[in-house]
Queue: 3 jobs
Job 1
Amino acid sequence: MSLRFFNTYSRAPEEFRPIAADGRTVKMYTCGPTVYSYAHIGNFRAYLFEDLLQRHLELRGFKVQRVMNITDVDDKTIRGCQEAGVPLAQFTEPFTEAFFDDLAALRIKRADNYPRATEEQHVAAMIAMIGTLIERGLAYQAEDKSVYFRIKNFAEYGRLAHFNLDELQSTGRVKNDEYEKESVGDFALWKAWDEADGPVRWDSPWGSGRPGWHIECSAMATQLLGEQLDIHCGGVDNIFPHHEAEIAQTEGVTGKQFVRYWMHCAHLQVDAQKMSKSLGNFYTLRDVLAKGYTGREVRYALMRVHYRAPLNFTWEGMDEARQALGRIDEWVARLRAKAAEENVERRTSNAEGRTEAFEEALDDDLNISAALGFLFETIRQTNRALDGGTLDAAAARGWLEWWNRIDTVLALTGEDTSVPANITALGEARAQARLAKEWRKSDELRDELAALGWEIRDTKDGQKITKRGGA
RNA sequence: GGCGGGGUAGCCAAGUGGUAAGGCAGCGGUCUGCAAAACCGCUAUUCGCGGGUUCGAUUCCCGCCCCCGCCUCCA
């Protein structure tokens, strides 16, 4: 079965083949955050989808080069730094760091580069691109001194979004009387400085100002990855105008197809509405962690639904994630215990089966639900074999190997939490009470442990203490 | 109005022209001092609605309804 992804360009699944001659290198660009506040978990849904994509490509042997931009200059960051009374960089830095912390908490792999829009080399690249676009008649400087892209000279404009530009209906978000643009749809490449920008300004052949949002991605992507990318991702709300603009700018300069596969993630919803800063119905990762959930639980909750389907965020969903992870943890722990036993003649048969189904499901446009379905089926079968004593140490090791392989994609293995001394002591006391058949006392100790967040249970091999929820 | 995404059990969700994976929750059972975990069984004659094609449709075709998003700087 081949690897295939749904391409927004064609609105159809397409077999994936990288551009690189080696057939292995994959160049991937993913739109990153604007660092004017903390990212919300809807944003992270997109980053988790991209993480799943990268990890699965790597599992399949591809070498992924990924770039994610950090937008550290725009209207919101400028407004924010002025309100805070600090320089722009000082304002954006803590949010940038918080973003990286959040990525780590969600176990999202680091990209190879996180270029910032304000870096001099990138601003220089943006200016160079704008110059070329003007030379080619694809951009012009208007009376307000800003430079705009001339969409009517780029025939492909609207192709990605499948928009017929003549039929667009204004939602009121665009100001028709905005300066001297030739066409309402022309977007800013270079925004002329005005007083509201304060000290935020760069020199350019068109006067001082700052880059438009879209040009940032075009410049940084081509600088770091080259003129042609294999995959470019983002949320569906980026299709138009952002990605459309990126295509226009980049192809306007290079004359080559910018991106082969455009992949877009559906929104995270709250109460069946898009989670967004402007609606105010959002949770940051910090908000969710503050409720006692872990990054890995959020990872599972946001990753378990196919990326092109809307996902409604609920606390019930978080609890469900916790339970499901507990099931996985328990299974891994049982396999580990069994695997540690003396190797004996392998006599397992009923727990062996196809293990490729997981990866093949992901090959099919990252069908995570089917992949997880297979995982849980496997868990049930191997548990049954463990219960029945028909799964030996060698087989357990085999299943652990399989788990370790698919977990390079899932990144859901629980962290080993060492049991604190006071908890161990309570456990010991309970064991003593049980030996003495002092059931009431042992049950009280069990409750006490539960109140501290530890679960104790009795097995054939004695008591076992595990952290509830968590890690 | 244009362009998309979605509508499958109480909730989340996969899926196929041949009679509905999996997870969570719930109920009953095995195990346990009691639990927990694990396992076993039960929980959609039915896949938004109405037509059509077909031996047979949740799956294909036509029409409609509902939810969500984009339509010029939102992941």
Note: The longest strand of chain A covers residues 229-235.
Job 2
Amino acid sequence: MNKREFKDKVYIELSKAVKALANPHRLEIIDLLAQGQFTVEQIANNTGLSVANASQHLQNLKNAKLVQINRKGNFINYSLASEQIYNALICVRELGMTFNAEVKKVISDFRNGQQEDMRAIDAETLVTMLENDEVILLDVRPEEEYSRGHIHRALSTPIDKLGNSLKKIPKRKMLVAYCRGPFCVYADEAVAILTQKGYNAVRLEEGYPEWALKGYPVEHI
Amino acid sequence: MNKREFKDKVYIELSKAVKALANPHRLEIIDLLAQGQFTVEQIANNTGLSVANASQHLQNLKNAKLVQINRKGNFINYSLASEQIYNALICVRELGMTFNAEVKKVISDFRNGQQEDMRAIDAETLVTMLENDEVILLDVRPEEEYSRGHIHRALSTPIDKLGNSLKKIPKRKMLVAYCRGPFCVYADEAVAILTQKGYNAVRLEEGYPEWALKGYPVEHI
DNA sequence: CATCTATTCTATTTATTTATTGAATAGACA
DNA sequence: TGTCTATTCAATAAATAAATAGAATAGATG
């Protein structure tokens, strides 16, 4: 094997891993799987794909060793093969958000369209606020995802049942809502509703997976 | 814009950045550009591409804002748009090397093919050794790349003129050779030659760009 | 201004990727 | 054992990406 053959082989193999990530649907699937395991149908529903199409993309990710399966009864659950995969997604997200102005534009357009000034606080600030007991932290993801793991001291208030949860929440404290990550809009929706109801609410910049990856305190049941 | 449209747009834009990296030749080009700026022809020569083809790939990278141009006389020099791009490459490299066993295999096959036990030391070890004046550090990249920037206290001993350089190098000290990065074979070739001539030589795990990115001492002229 | 040359563009062919549909499969459970 | 069902496979069509070769361009230099 000469130098050129060696380099060709190495870069071709390397590009296979990148190609597995080089598709909008697969990026969305990885982002979703960072919350935990999901069946093919759940993945299809969450991403707007047909089941067959979702399955194909999952095969693609599985071949690249980025996801793994785990059979439970009649269902097959897909999950990330390792935390490092999410790390790569964060890397790629940084790249996209830094060098593709369009990404930033789409996000700010969407948030402005919601007619809310979506201020966000970061993980470090939240840690201090939680220590001082200044805030109530709301996990607005579906309950199932909360139960798999959530930020220490967060309450489960799924976005679609937010109305019910409000009764228990006093208005005098500041609320912080978080969800799956920067491209998940549950927290935005929650802040919009809460603000409209007279609460003082902001979103957390980080989603649950990033929070956990940074080593901040989490709880599993 | 509804939720689905928003997500579709975000992930499509995000995938554009990834698609720019999802090609073996473009990965190799990025790896090369981490050494500094190169003309289209230099890039073509270094990667085994035709000039027209290299130019096309460069346009692709330019559209994704990953590389920038800088005109000098009759030539156009391409360089990475920011250090962060190389960061993304490292991320992707980690992903590939961790989850694609084939990458590791190709590398070890190639090194074994050279009939040398290619031991390597890491940056931290080297720093200590340099402080204790225990080693001579050799930059075996082309002289031009050395002159753009190199590791503090390294000598320029380009691989194709290594024979000439040897006269000045005493045999009693250990030699450490480094080059462009993990997929560059100059350091391997150098270690093979040096060992064969009776020197005690090893390669540095990191290439120059990684060394610099980690904040270890460098020198520019 | 004319020429030279590094680079880019255009057109074409070939290869790869994606979505869709309907059929096939593999495992669970009665 | 047979049925049920979640998932995958296979075939096709449509879209996108890549390599090649030759023409075009833009800027430098005399």
Note: Chain B has a mean pLDDT of 93.
Job 3
Amino acid sequence: MPDTTTIRDTVRDTVRGAGRSSGKGAETRERILDAALESFGTIGYDGTSLDDLAAGLGIRKQTILYHYVSKRGLLGAVVDRSAADLNVALLEVLEGEATDWERVEALVRSVFRVALEQPLLMGLLREVSRPGSPAAPRLKGAMGPLMDRAQAWMEREMDAGRMRRTDAQLVLISAYSTVVGLATEIEVLRAAGLEPTMRTVATRRRELLRFLRASLDPQR
Amino acid sequence: MPDTTTIRDTVRDTVRGAGRSSGKGAETRERILDAALESFGTIGYDGTSLDDLAAGLGIRKQTILYHYVSKRGLLGAVVDRSAADLNVALLEVLEGEATDWERVEALVRSVFRVALEQPLLMGLLREVSRPGSPAAPRLKGAMGPLMDRAQAWMEREMDAGRMRRTDAQLVLISAYSTVVGLATEIEVLRAAGLEPTMRTVATRRRELLRFLRASLDPQR
DNA sequence: CCTTCTTTCTACCAGATGGTCAGGGGACTT
DNA sequence: AAGTCCCCTGACCATCTGGTAGAAAGAAGG
């Protein structure tokens, strides 16, 4: 599985009927993806059985296997779609007009917005960013290019003196794990019987921004 | 499974031969626990098969089931031992002479020390703090009293005006998820080909302390 | 030598899981 | 009406799973 493989291409490997997006099956495929995201993100990949997944959809397991060739293929498709969602949100910012620190702040806000709107996505990230996860390489393939791009941009900013010189990759990983940690936090909150509020998320975001500012802002 | 059940008691329920700690089996039990902690903490509970676990130890699966009655019993024993490790580290501080903010700082340092020495333990926490995990109630039973104690202490400090008045439980959960997030971060670092250094961990610790200070310190 | 207890193993099982295969029905084309 | 393609399903299967039953091996003690 070469690193140069694009997202679309890998999707085509595991999704029967990619290329045509119309037809009756398209809706089914989406419904399967939704349910799979929910299941993978909560009870995990290993904990998800295709039979249960299908039953929840009023469908037979074979239908799932028809659209996504195997269970791993399904996971791959879920990861790809989720990564694509993130990519859209991030590219919007990256192609915006914000510069320097403003852009960093916009990126963080963008990611947190996605995390709030799709908490399941964070659960999936957590599940999948585990070493030995069947989708770890897949995630790397889907998110890697974006990470590389962000890192390259940061290093350019550093060269231009608009950012403090630090290890860009380290900062990125730190930010990434903070966001993923949100999933844990939200779930722990729920387990403790508290409904997560905007406040807890905002607190985390403020913390992350402070950390980034301390790491990157050239003045202090 | 009543909340008042002590850790020792629940261990006795699931471990054959508790009470005698000598004998040939004691070493085997420990080896099994070590391997199980590693496996649960990395590939997860569902992803762990007793056969593989046993094979890795040069042992038959039935030997595991002899010592720990069931797979869940094994998980319970792992969680209990890990929680006990954490408890020891924390009680040391709680019974120390540090007061007020110093005590908070000492607690954080203590937890991070454990996290560094036993990164697998963090992986287990992450795995187990997932909703629907078979060990979620077990974890709650093992860690809950400590959390309650910490919360009660914080509220006493608040009443005495030595701590700023905030939602103690929320602060605790935030701190907890930060520590657990360390596991994610360390693993992502490894996945990126970087060996986690003291520096990354120290950065996180500093962040957490700053957050706690901002939340709790009465002056500012 | 016999008994008892602990520890480990061989043999086996019922259930669940991911996956294969062949077929059926509907819609659209020719 | 016949062929074709897409979508879905029932029947089936190999494998793996956690778990049970029973026995062998060794140590300890009488």
Note: Confidence is low (pLDDT under 50) at residues 1-13 of chain B.
